[in-house]
Amino acid sequence: MTSAIGANIRRLREERRWSQARLALETCRATGISGDPIGRQEISRYETGKRRPREWLPFIAAALGVPVEALTAPQKPAEPPLPTLADFLPNEDPLSPLRGRTGRHIGIGAVDDLQQRVHGLRLADDVLAGGDLIRPALRELRSAVKLFREGTHTSEVGRQLLVQIGELAQIAGWIASDAGQHEEAERIYRLGISAATQAEDHTLAGNLAGSLAYQMSNTGREGEGLTLAQAALNDAGSDAPPKARALYLDRVAWAHTKAGEIQPAIRALGEAAEALAEENAGSEAPAYLYWVDAGELQVMESRVYTEIRRPLRAVPLLRDVLTRYDATHTREMALYLSWLAIALADANEPEEAAAVAQRVITISADVASERTAERVRVILSRLRDFADVPEVATLLSGNAA
User: How many Cα atoms are found within 13 Å in the side-chain-facing hemisphere of 285?
Assistant: First the structure.
């Protein structure tokens, strides 16, 4: 259980928007001792109450610029604290640099090369499925972590490497999830959250957390998914780029939907649209958010309405999205059609639902994606309610398990 000292350390650190790694670094500097006698893991243990700072307390106070009494004073919060991403970091730091590193010196050129490979993998994910990309994605991620841990580099180069590891973890986690490897995806996402947090890139950390929350919401962990989605939004703060806030709110909307909380879900959808409307020529959204636009928000809106069985709203939205969607993105096309099939079934249009379902099955036949495979199973299960309709009966007989 978190102690009063731990709660104070965490509160003061978060007020400064410091990562645990940053506080560890500043504490080491306050001691005047060479090396790194205290690391992120120790700060985490202090904050969670697993260990007391004892002799380190004055140095932590000095690093935070407060008297020791500010850390030992009992806290009586007026309301429960908001969830934060620190609760979802790995217990042990897989990014801790090796002692006595003997690897080659890493300069900014290596970071640029990694950035190009990350971008290439991101573009490949637009047109290829997780089963096709999982191996190269994991190889790139392991190579990047090894480069950071074993190489020698300046603090700024190290920070840039952490950012690229975070971006790579975002893609690799998404790919692993698409391939149905959910435990591996979660480990990757948590690694990425740790990297982005240590680099103090709050927007990237929120993006990673939102992706993990999305996976949790879709795999029977709705409560955890909602908590993490809200933590991503809370930690990013109001100064996050409009596109990022729109995406975080989209994830919150879906998490509420999967948790059966309809009104909060619809409210979050509206807030996501408002956030995106603030995007303008002067906004500086990270390059990896290139795909977040009004069309993507419309996709989520249509999915929410499908999930809560409001087909009269869902069907027109999905039809509009599908007329504008790039058919080369086979996986996404199959997924969006799958939602249309479900919405049509809910609208008591089983014949058309069966026709759309057949399109989903046909175009996803050669797609190595567990997401599309699961959606096919969901459609067939839903259409069994209409097994006496000839078109549905033909579909079901041709796709019997």
Answer: 21
Q: Which long-range contacts does 318-321 make (Cβ < 8 Å, 24+ apart)?
A: 318/343, 321/295
Whether the Cβ atoms of residue 333 and residue 371 lie closer than 8 Å to each other: no
Strands (E) in 263-364, as ranges, are none
Torsions phi, psi of 236, nearest 5? -65, -35
| pLDDT number for residue 262 | 93
Report the Cα 119 to chain-centroid distance in Å: 17
Spatial CB neighbours of 214, under 8 Å, sequence gap ≥ 6? 225, 229, 251, 254, 255
* Residue 239: φ, ψ to 5°: -90, 5
How many other CB atoms are there within 10 angstroms of residue 73's CB atom?
Answer: 12
Q: Are 86 and 53 in contact (CB under 8 A)?
A: no
Instruction: Find, among 166, 159, 151, the residue nearest to 106 by Cα.
Output: 151
Q: Given the structure tokens 């249309």, which residue do they identify?
A: 340
Per-block average pLDDT, block size 10, for the chain (401 residues)? 78 84 87 77 84 87 89 66 59 60 78 90 83 87 86 88 93 91 91 90 93 95 94 85 94 96 94 90 81 90 94 93 80 91 95 95 87 92 94 88 56
Instruction: Please tell me the distance from the alpha carbon of residue 13 to that of residue 272, in angstroms, as a whole number.
Output: 28
Which residues, in sequence order, are bridge partners of residue 152? Answer: 105
Those residues whose C-beta lies under 8 Å from the C-beta of residue 235, and which sit 6 or more positions away, are: 84, 85, 202, 205, 206, 209
Name residue 105's beta-bridge partners: 152
339, 308 contact by CB (below 8 A)? no
